[in-house]
Amino acid sequence: MRDQMRTCAIIGFGRFGRLLARILREEFPVLVYDRRPDPAAARELDVELVSLEAACAADALFFAVPISEFESAIREARAHLGPGRLILDTCSVKVHPIEVMRRELPPWVEALGTHPLFGPDSARDGLQGLRIVFCPVRVSATTLQFWRAFWQRRGVQVIEMSPDEHDRRAAYSQGITHFVGRVLGELPLESGEITTRGFEAIRGVIEQTTHDTWQLFHDLQHYNPYTPQMREDLIRAFVTVMLKLYPDDPTLKALARAQRTRRGAEKKAHAESQERSRRAPKETSEAPTER
After folding, report:
1. Helix or strand or coil: residue 210?
2. pTM here?
3. Count of C-beta atoms within a 10 Å radius of residue 172
4. Which helix (H) or strand (E) holds 164?
């Protein structure tokens, strides 16, 4: 398998693309394509800037583009993809990019969804102990094991799960962290002589989340199907705590009633949807397995 995986390409040379280049170049020649190329950064990292067509000739292509640009990047590249190529996304959500790969990629290429649970900041001191999620789309067991071993050699734990499970969990971990960090970032919070360790931990969350681009935050909140519910739950929790402090406040009571009504309507709609699915005739499929 190592003989067959001779070159890697990175589509998108932003902060994460550059981190990926540092990692991949330990074992592979690395080609890079970016719509706004940075020759100085490429020279510094000892990678080769190439055209999109040349990048698509690599054995493995890592798409390190913003979530909202992933579909257009795949569509732009697909005409140049020959048999045997492997496409890997690195998006922080998984349902959306995997739906795109299933729909847009030709059947003669392999596809593997990944979410590295680290970035340039958290990987500053190395990869040991960090984690990456694999969501196989259309990939052979041999290819899957090759890339699992690649990350494990660097001390990275590989976690395999479905795209839906990933997004559900990520909404209430990464999604809520970024949302709370951005909200708190709107407040004038400053360190001082009487600040506690807990406060400094909060400051750390603010600094970490606001260091990322607004586009990443926007895409995390808009492309994960579970983040709307996460935000509703967060607001509900805020109102609950405020009501414990001010149980007679009429505005808070009205908000709580509105939330209960909305929650009830959502549960009813969900139950009706499940009942329709249960009653719908079962379709048989002869499609080959994607694993």
Report:
1. helix
2. 0.86
3. 15
4. helix 163-170
Distance, CA of 205 to CA of 218 (rounded, Å): 17
What are the start-end ranges of the H helices in 195-249? 197-211, 214-223, 227-245
Count of domains in the chain?
Answer: 2
Give 281's pLDDT tier (boundaries 50, 70, 90). Answer: low
Distances (CA, A) of 181 to 24, 138, 164, 165: 31, 36, 24, 23
Q: Does residue 32 contact residue 21 with C-beta atoms inside 8 Å?
A: yes
Beta bridge partners of 11: 33, 63
- Count Cα neighbours of 66 within 13 Å in the Cβ-side half-sphere: 14
Domain membership of residue 155 (yes or no) is: yes
Is 180 inside any structural domain?
no
Question: Residue 4: what pLDDT?
Answer: 65
How far apart CA 142 and CA 161 sit, in angstroms, is: 18
35: CB partners within 8 A, 6+ apart: none
* pLDDT tens per residue, range 7-63: 999 999 999 999 999 999 999 999 999 999 999 999 999 999 999 999 999 999 999
Q: Which residue, of 126, 161, 196, is where some domain finishes?
A: 161
Domain membership of residue 252 (yes or no) is: yes
**In Å, how far are 26, 238, 239, 256 from 251, measured between CA atoms?**
59, 13, 10, 9
> Other CB atoms closer than 10 Å to residue 208's CB: what's the count?
15
284 is a domain residue: no
What radius of gyration do the chain's Cα atoms show?
22
